[in-house]
Structure to design on (82 residues):
C-alpha cells in the first residue's frame, strides 16, 4: 500500500472516531469514508514528496544544462559571424 493510501486510511479512521453519533457503526462508516477518500485522491493523480523532489532536481539540472548550451551556441554564433 502506498504511503498516501496509508495516510488516507488513518484520516478515515480519525474522522469516524471524531463523530460520536456514528459510533454504533464505525467499521462500515470507516470503510465508506476510505472508499470515498481513495476515489477522490485517485482522480487527483498525486505524487509523493520524494517523487516531486526528484522531478524538481531533474528540472533544475535540465535548466542548468540548457543555459550552458545556450551560452555555447551564442559563443559559436558570435565566433562564426559573417
Amino acid at each position: 500500500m502506498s504511503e498516501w493510501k496509508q495516510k488516507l486510511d488513518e484520516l478515515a479512521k480519525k474522522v469516524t472516531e471524531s463523530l460520536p453519533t456514528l459510533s454504533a457503526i464505525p467499521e462500515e462508516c470507516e470503510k465508506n469514508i476510505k472508499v470515498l477518500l481513495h476515489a477522490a485522491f485517485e482522480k487527483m493523480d498525486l505524487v509523493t514528496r520524494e517523487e516531486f523532489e526528484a522531478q524538481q532536481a531533474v528540472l533544475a539540472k535540465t535548466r542548468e544544462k540548457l543555459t550552458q548550451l545556450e551560452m555555447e551556441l551564442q559563443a559559436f554564433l558570435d565566433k562564426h559571424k559573417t
The chain has a mean pLDDT of 83. The chain has three helices and no strands.
